[in-house]
Amino acid sequence: MTNVYMPIKAEIVSIIPQTDIDYTFRLKSDILPQHGQFLQVSIPKIGEAPISISDYTDEYIELTIRKVGTVTDAIHELKPGDFLFIRGPYGHGFPVEDFKNKNVVIAAGGTGLAPVKSIINRYNRNPKEIKKLNILVGFKSPKDILFEDEIKKWKEKFDVLLTVDNGDETWKGNTGLITKFIPDLKIENSDDTIVIVVGPPMMMKFACLEFLKRGILEENIWVSFERKMSCGIGKCGHCKINETYVCLEGPVFNYTKSKQLLD
């Protein structure tokens, strides 16, 4: 009988610093997840943490990991050639097959950009898969911006609005929360537009309300919950909201369901 809790060993190929506390770890792997799924990542004798998959090919996966606790602190001490232990992928991802030939808007706040980065790169490689892509991405400050090089590449092909909550004296870009810019977003046909919102709970709640004001249908809005998960298979209850196990039914939810889960 297969032990569902047994992780596999994955070699770290490269480590890319994003900010002072966010690093992207590229692991040798042939796992092919759905966009938006997550892995349980562990170090023996230290512990385990749920991490969103930020990108992948048939040769590697990428995990963008913030240094915020015992396990992630230990992960940040590792070097290329070292190993992590992974199990998964878990949960439901974004139904990208249903997004074909649609207008797509992706609104991501902070580390919420990581779970949707693979979708954006998918469309960057295959722009004809959809009609149009708008990207709204916000961070607390300029020093918190993730994937700067990739954001520059996305700007060559898509409409990208980058904003920070608080700029410094060197910041020349947009300032303000993402919700500030949704009313002026060019949406050509609201019935034919898919919206993906990922970020802190309050950001997702109010961004979704702004998109509803723009005429986006509830069933065309998708969100992803970054909620503490432990077992990944619906046994421990750590991620439970009311009667919903986020690790099983999510982390990606349609707004028709998630509106009951958003605090």
Automatic annotation (TrEMBL):
<dbReference type="InterPro" id="IPR019480">
    <property type="entry name" value="Dihydroorotate_DH_Fe-S-bd"/>
</dbReference>
<dbReference type="InterPro" id="IPR014260">
    <property type="entry name" value="Sulphite_reductase_B"/>
</dbReference>
<dbReference type="InterPro" id="IPR012165">
    <property type="entry name" value="Cyt_c3_hydrogenase_gsu"/>
</dbReference>
<dbReference type="InterPro" id="IPR050353">
    <property type="entry name" value="PyrK_electron_transfer"/>
</dbReference>
<protein>
    <submittedName>
        <fullName>Anaerobic sulfite reductase subunit B</fullName>
    </submittedName>
</protein>
<dbReference type="Pfam" id="PF00175">
    <property type="entry name" value="NAD_binding_1"/>
</dbReference>
<feature type="domain" description="FAD-binding FR-type">
    <location>
        <begin position="5"/>
        <end position="96"/>
    </location>
</feature>
<dbReference type="InterPro" id="IPR039261">
    <property type="entry name" value="FNR_nucleotide-bd"/>
</dbReference>
<dbReference type="InterPro" id="IPR001433">
    <property type="entry name" value="OxRdtase_FAD/NAD-bd"/>
</dbReference>
<dbReference type="InterPro" id="IPR017927">
    <property type="entry name" value="FAD-bd_FR_type"/>
</dbReference>
<dbReference type="InterPro" id="IPR017938">
    <property type="entry name" value="Riboflavin_synthase-like_b-brl"/>
</dbReference>
<dbReference type="Pfam" id="PF10418">
    <property type="entry name" value="DHODB_Fe-S_bind"/>
</dbReference>
